[in-house]
Amino acid sequence: MQSLAIVGAQWGDEGKGKITDLLGQKCDVVVRYQGGNNAGHTIIVGTKKIVLHLIPSGILHDHCVSVVGHGVVFDPEAFKVELEDVLSSGCKVTPEKLKISENCSVITMYNRLLDGQRESKGPVKIGTTGRGIGPAYEDKISRKGLKLKDLLDLDHLTAKLKDNMIEKEVLFKTLYNCEFPSVEEEAARLFELGKIVAPFLTDTFSFIDKSLQENKKLLYEGAQGVLLDIDYGSYPFVTSSNTSTGGIYTGAGLPGNHIGEVLGITKAYLTRVGEGPFPTELFDEKGDFIQQKGGEFGATTGRKRRCGWIDLPLLKYTVKASNITSIALTKLDVLSGIEDIKICTGYEYEGKTIDCAYQGIDLSKVKPILKDMPSFNDDFKGEVLSDELKNYIRTIEDFVGIPVGILAYGPERSEIKFQKDYF
Ligand code: GDP
Ligand code: IMO
Ligand code: MG
Does 181 contact ligand 2 (Cβ within 6 A)? Predict the structure, then answer.
């Protein structure tokens, strides 16, 4: 297999960073292709904790080239902070090791402001990360956006910003009634930040193409999860990119037939940050217990993650929607030892019983069918898994029709069992 894709099979925060870091040891190139610094991918090595937002999770390996593809929306200010963080952790970051597409769309101050204003004053609160993701993708799609290469020439940058601001100014002045920077201030800020990004800018399309021709091993690191996909997710409570495998083709510039495996990262239970329906959400002490034991706080915003049981109709759907070929089941240690665990095996919806969600289903109207599962109490020290845990895993595999290839039972790199070979 030459290329592997890693996607979140739920609502994000499934443990993609940990698995990407681990499999990154075996590959040559790790590519981010969508989203932006709304992502928070945690890697724990010994006592060191690194949270990556924009920089791909292959960066800790010196042999590995990390690529930020053109489908990513890129906040150069967030990059500056992250770069300093990663460098201060002792990790090397050079233009040979980190390549950023000169065609990434830029997240401006106006985009961040607009995100914040809509969340605080708009009619529907999505619970965004406040990073300006939606407004930046809007600018891209409306063909008004800045590309990273635009930051390198101040006159050109000022002219483009001026064009972009004609509409924004009306919104800030008349609708939101808020302060905003002048075109000149924003151009000067972005121009300075552009100098920090400049050494890493390149034509990543050709780099990926060349890597494939040289038979290099590539890993595509998805951000968020399929249920947050702008097309496949629980709209409007989604992010603004294609988080599913489809995003790779548009966001990385990859000729389609190299991906041998799509690994869907799935927690043994389910979490969600932000607003939106969540059929198996727990509102009781058990939910609080899982939230505490699992340390379920957002890696980007620090918000508490909502917790619930694993939802197999949703998982079956994300497997289909993203062509997932195997699963990495994470956080098994969190569920271990908890009595009376449940799995959702179907929904009652519009007078029918269904076992698979679908695009456009109204998740706020489904009634989950919950099955009691024998609890397991594994400490994962030996090779042998308890019959109860094997049963839990087999129930998932049988339901969604693909194997669980990885079991994760702790945040550390080493706390993992492979049931299948990758690379
Ligand atoms: P990502 O966005 O998918 O990369 O996931 P996050 O980093 O936002 O959240 C996953 C959290 O769970 C992080 O704090 C990880 O260190 C941690 N983690 C990952 N896998 C496991 C696991 O198997 N068990 C436990 N207890 N923690 C894990
Ligand atoms: P990783 O890559 C979990 C959620 C937000 C909000 C919605 C829209 O770490 O798994 P946005 O700021 O993107 O416009 O917010 O999407 N969200 C995430 N939830 N993990 C993430 O990334 C997320 N990125 C965005 O909480 O509900
Ligand atoms: Mg995360």
Answer: no
User: Of all atoms in ligand 2, which is nearest to the CA of residue 300?
Assistant: 9
Cα 301 to averaged position of ligand 2 atoms, centre (Å): 10
73 lines ligand 2 (CB under 6 A): no
Residue 301: predicted pLDDT: 87
In the numeric block, which tokens belong to residue 121? 């004053």
Q: For ligand 1, what atom is nearest to the CA of residue 410?
A: 24
The pLDDT tens digits for 91-130 are 999 999 999 999 999 999 999 999 999 999 988 899 999 9
Active site residue 13: yes
315 Cα to the center of ligand 2, angstroms: 18
Fill in the DSSP letter of residue 107.
Answer: P
CB distance 114 to 132 below 8 Å:
yes
The CATH number of 105-196, from 1.10.10.10, 1.10.287.80, 3.40.190.100, 1.10.300.10, is: 1.10.300.10
CATH code for the domain defined by 267-418: 3.90.170.10
> Is there a catalytic annotation at residue 340?
no
Contacting residues for 98 by C-beta, under 8 A, at least 6 apart: 55, 59, 65, 66, 67, 68, 200
